[in-house]
Amino acid sequence: MSSSFKNKLRRRETASLVNPDHPSSSLVYFMGSLAIDAVMIDCEQGSPSFEDVEEMARAARLRGVSAIVRIPSVEPWTIERYVMRGIDGLVIPRLDKGEQARRAVQEVRYAAPRDFDSKVIIVQVESASAVEDLDAFLAIDEIDCFFIGVVDLAKSMGFAGDYAAPQVVATIDRTIARILGAGRCVGIMVKDHDIERWRARGVTMLYTHLNDFAAMGAGAWRRLAGVAG
Questions:
Q1: For strand 38-42 and strand 15-19, is the pairing parallel, antiparallel, or unpaired?
Q2: 218: pLDDT confidence band, cut at 50, 70 and 90?
Q3: CA-CA distances (angstroms) from residue 21 to 43, 47, 83, 96, 213?
Q4: What is the pLDDT at residue 215?
Q5: Contacts of 47 (CB under 8 A, 6+ apart)
């Protein structure tokens, strides 16, 4: 499960990470039939309880899909409590400095000493400060993927989340190039109108929400059925 997703990230093969958007194990189980690589159980912006996390992770395992949790904060107790829920890895947000990321990785190792090497570790690069300190992030070998949080990055740059602003686009493109230049994996949120653009720039970890994923499928269905949208 996690090893397949982790290996794809490490080899910079195209890999999908989909946020279920709803705290439902049965939904995760269904999503496992959609040829995705991993689900992201969102405990930063979503509402899953610790029990929901365990049940959603079990459903993912039954389908052979990795269960990755985005944690709400990077305190040691937070990392430990989620890692011990039977998940395959973490998305770690709210990092401004590489040293914060290094400490978070150490906490994951502490919480999972026997199977640390199989855990997926994705860090979000989502602030101007993180971009400035990117070399320190890239020096951490244990990180499997650097996930550029475009909305929060734009906000931190003073553009109120508008990641289409030219200055933000230029920063994102430079950041992608720096990560790829270090031989590392880049992840980003994709929409139907920009997925080809990001792939052309070398992004291989493609993140989306189930709501958008379903809308893309619905759009394809309407085109095939000749139904006006």
A1: parallel
A2: confident
A3: 10, 9, 20, 26, 11
A4: 87
A5: 23
The mean pLDDT value of the chain amounts to 95
The HSE-up count of residue 112 (CA atoms within 13 Å, CB side) is: 22
Which of 26-30, 48-52, 224-228 shows the lowest mean pLDDT across its residues?
224-228
Higher pLDDT, residue 156 or 227: 156
Q: What is the DSSP string of the chain?
A: -HHHHHHHHHHT--EEEEE-SS--HHHHHHHTTS--SEEEEETTTS---HHHHHHHHHHHHHHT-EEEEE-S---HHHHHHHHTTS-SEEEE----SHHHHHHHHHHHHHH-TTTGGGSEEEEEE-SHHHHHTHHHHHT-TT--EEEE-HHHHHHHTTSTT-TTSHHHHHHHHHHHHHHHHTT--EEEE--TTTHHHHHHTT--EEEEEHHHHHHHHHHHHHHHHT---
pLDDT tens across 61-115, in order?
Answer: 999 999 999 999 999 999 999 999 999 999 999 999 999 999 999 999 999 999 9
Q: What angle (nearest 5°) sits at the alpha carbon of residue 97, between those of residues 181 and 49?
A: 105
Interior angle at CA 223, CA 29 and CA 151, nearest 5? 60
Q: Given the structure tokens 């430079």, which residue do they identify?
A: 174
Residue 182 predicted with pLDDT over 90: yes
Residue 167 one-letter amino acid: Q
- Give the position of tokens 């909305």: 151
